[in-house]
Amino acid sequence: MRAMRRRLLDRIYGGMIRMRPSFLRTAGKRDMLVRLLTNLKGIFLNVGDHARALSAVERILLIHPTASGEVRDRGTILARLGRAEEAIEQLEWYLDYAPGAPDADRIRVLVETLRNSPQAGGAV
């Protein structure tokens, strides 16, 4: 069985992925729900359905309220929906929670842009 899994991984990923015991961990109901919702979020974002993407993020955050990446995504989706004040609040939370995140500089620029937008009461 182990050799079969190894061959499958090698065939799919060209030998770039090594089997780990965590890959075979049983997924709980919450894990499966988060995976499903994450897939839906990606689909909705790809087709530009930001309202439904936001809905998927909101549901993920019901399961994992402090998932910083999801809070960031909620903020960016809210910005796309023109809800600048709410977006700023979410993005600032993200920056406070994960100040050293690889995308922190980009998110800071987005927050400043949103602060200066007419929707947020800025002076653009």
Short recap of the structure:
The protein has helices at residues 2-13, 29-46, 50-63, 68-80, 84-97, 104-115. By secondary structure, the chain is mostly helical.
What do these coordinates show?
- The protein is mostly helical.
- It has a single domain, classed as Alpha Horseshoe (Serine Threonine Protein Phosphatase 5, Tetratricopeptide repeat), CATH 1.25.40.
- It is elongated, with a radius of gyration of 19 Å.
Our count of domains comes out at: 1
CATH C-level label: Mainly Alpha
Q: Please, what is the CATH homologous superfamily?
A: Tetratricopeptide repeat domain
Largest sheet entry: none
Number of helices: 6
Work out the helicity level: 55-70%
Query: Given the helix and strand composition, which structural class is it?
Result: mainly alpha
CATH topology: Serine Threonine Protein Phosphatase 5, Tetratricopeptide repeat
Radius of gyration using CA atoms only: 19 Å
Distance between the termini: 62 Å
Mean pLDDT across the residues is 90
How many β-strands, per DSSP?
A: 0
Could you give the order of the helices and strands?
Answer: HHHHHH
* Spans where pLDDT lies below 50 across 5 or more residues: none
**Globular, elongated, flat, extended or rod-shaped: what is the shape?**
elongated
Percentage of β-strand residues:
under 5%
CATH architecture: Alpha Horseshoe
Secondary structure elements and pairings:
Layout: H1 2-13, H2 29-46, H3 50-63, H4 68-80, H5 84-97, H6 104-115
